[in-house]
Amino acid sequence: MSQVMSGDAQVHAAVLRAAAGAAKDTPGVAFLRPGLGELLRGAVARTPGFGPASRAASGPGSPSPSGLTGRVPGVRADHGPGPGPWRVRVHLAVRRGHRALDVVRAVRPRVTAAVQEALRTAGEAAPEVAVTVTVTDIT
């Protein structure tokens, strides 16, 4: 399987990584909450014949399942055709002792700025970004 990604896929992966990094680095964020798909992929990865041992058999440096799909747990992003905005959705857990509203208010501008920077780096002029943050848990 080729690890070469198309330009659009590279930009999408950069957007996901930028959003995840910015969200994780925000005070009060415990972790990004994986969706059902990531949880199921994680269960498959722990199943005999599908886990790290089988990936090691395919050679050192084999990518993880999330590396193959370009997915980042807890972050979704899409961009329709044309000049519309990128829509980024972040699902996260808040650390106990932090107000969820304060954490969301801190995460949104950080993710927006990080994604805009990633898009500018990829050559997209004046990228518009809409960020939605959902708190799924308090830990």
Fold and architecture overview:
A hairpin with a 6-residue loop joins strand 2 and strand 3. The protein is globular, with a radius of gyration of 16 Å. 44% of the residues lie in helices and 20% in strands. Helix 1 (7-24) runs antiparallel to helix 5. The protein has two domains: 7-33 and 74-138, Alpha-Beta Plaits; 35-69, no CATH class. It has 139 residues and is an alpha+beta fold. Strands 1, 2, 3 and 4 form a four-stranded mixed beta sheet that branches.
Topology:
Layout: H1 7-24, E1 29-32, H2 36-45, H3 52-57, H4 65-69, E2 75-79, E3 86-94, H5 100-121, E4 129-138
Parallel strand pairs: 3-4
Antiparallel strand pairs: 1-3, 2-3
Task: Sum up the overall morphology in one term.
Answer: globular
State Rg: 16 Å
Largest sheet: 4 strands, mixed
The CATH topology of the largest domain comes to Alpha-Beta Plaits
> What are the secondary-structure elements, in order, as H or E?
HEHHHEEHE
Number of strands: 4
The total of helices stands at 5
Distance between the termini: 39 Å
CATH superfamily of the largest domain: Cation efflux protein, cytoplasmic domain
**Mean pLDDT across all residues, rounded?**
81
Runs in which pLDDT lies below 50 for 5 or more consecutive residues are 52-68
CATH architecture of the largest domain: 2-Layer Sandwich
Q: How many individual domains?
A: 2
Structural class: alpha+beta
Task: Report the CATH C-level class of the largest domain.
Answer: Alpha Beta
Q: Kindly state the percentage of residues in helix.
A: 40-55%
Percent strand:
15-25%
